[in-house]
Amino acid sequence: MMAPDRQPAHVAPLNRFAAVLRARHGDVPDFDPLDGGIAARLLVLLETPGPASVSTGTTSRDNPTGTARNLTRFLDGLPLSRWDTVIWNAVPWRLPRRGGKLGRPTRMDIEAAARDLPALLALLPRVQVVVLAGRVAQSLRPALDAARPDLTVIAIPHPSPTHLAASPAARERLFGEASRREIAVAIADEAG
């Protein structure tokens, strides 16, 4: 986590939000300062922080994981600059490992995350499109619709290599033209 006095202005409000969550829920990574922060037009919600965020301290497409590489490949196919995007997790706190595997969010985790979502969205006034990556993120759709009914919400498969290897249809949905076109049209409609 970056020292409060060293925060870039475009992510400082978001990282203050992360600090509030950290005080309540434990280990919550910061936002990536290389993304657009509060200036972003596209919010990508993944599921939960992965183990790489422990070493990097951020939720980032640059984390050294297959999920981050797949997410980068997906985002690189969009007609947006990195500055137009911000990446976060539906349940933004690290969950305890169970049986050597990453912990899965409980219903209480998801309900708590849904309650925190309006505060996050209030910090992202330029966001036009939210991409929900995976089932956990997609479970927040009602909270998104209630907090910001003006948003275009698009569901995609989670970009984890394990998930994509098990489902050719998920791989096609993530890397095919349909998802990218849907996002491009939504961004263009909002800009026009």
List its salient traits.
192 residues, alpha/beta, Uracil-DNA Glycosylase, subunit E, 9 helices, Uracil-DNA_glycosylase-like_sf, Uracil-DNA_glycosylase-like, Uracil-DNA glycosylase family protein
Summarize the structure.
With 192 residues, this protein is α/β, with parallel strands linked by helices. Helices cover 45% and strands 12% of the residues.
Unreliable residue runs: none
CATH topology: Uracil-DNA Glycosylase, subunit E
State the total count of DSSP E strands. 6
CATH homologous superfamily grouping: Uracil-DNA glycosylase-like domain
Number of helices: 9
Globally, the shape reads globular
Beta fraction of the residues? 5-15%
CATH class: Alpha Beta
Protein name: Uracil-DNA glycosylase family protein
Domain Uracil-DNA glycosylase-like: 38-163
Organism: Bosea massiliensis
Pfam families: UDG
Write the SSE topology.
Layout: H1 12-25, E1 30-31, E2 42-46, H2 52-56, E3 58-59, H3 66-76, E4 85-89, H4 107-122, E5 129-133, H5 135-138, H6 141-147, E6 152-156, H7 161-166, H8 168-175, H9 177-191
Helix pairs in contact: 8-9
Describe the structure.
- With 192 residues, the protein is an alpha/beta fold.
- The protein has a single domain, classed as Uracil-DNA Glycosylase, subunit E (3-Layer(aba) Sandwich).
- It is 45% helix and 12% strand.
- The chain contains nine helices and six strands.
- The protein has a four-stranded parallel sheet with strand order 4-2-5-6, with helices on both faces. It has a two-stranded parallel ribbon with strand order 1-3.
- The longest helix has 16 residues, at 107-122.
- The radius of gyration is 16 Å and the shape is globular.
- Residues 38-163 form the Uracil-DNA glycosylase-like domain.
- It comes from Bosea massiliensis.
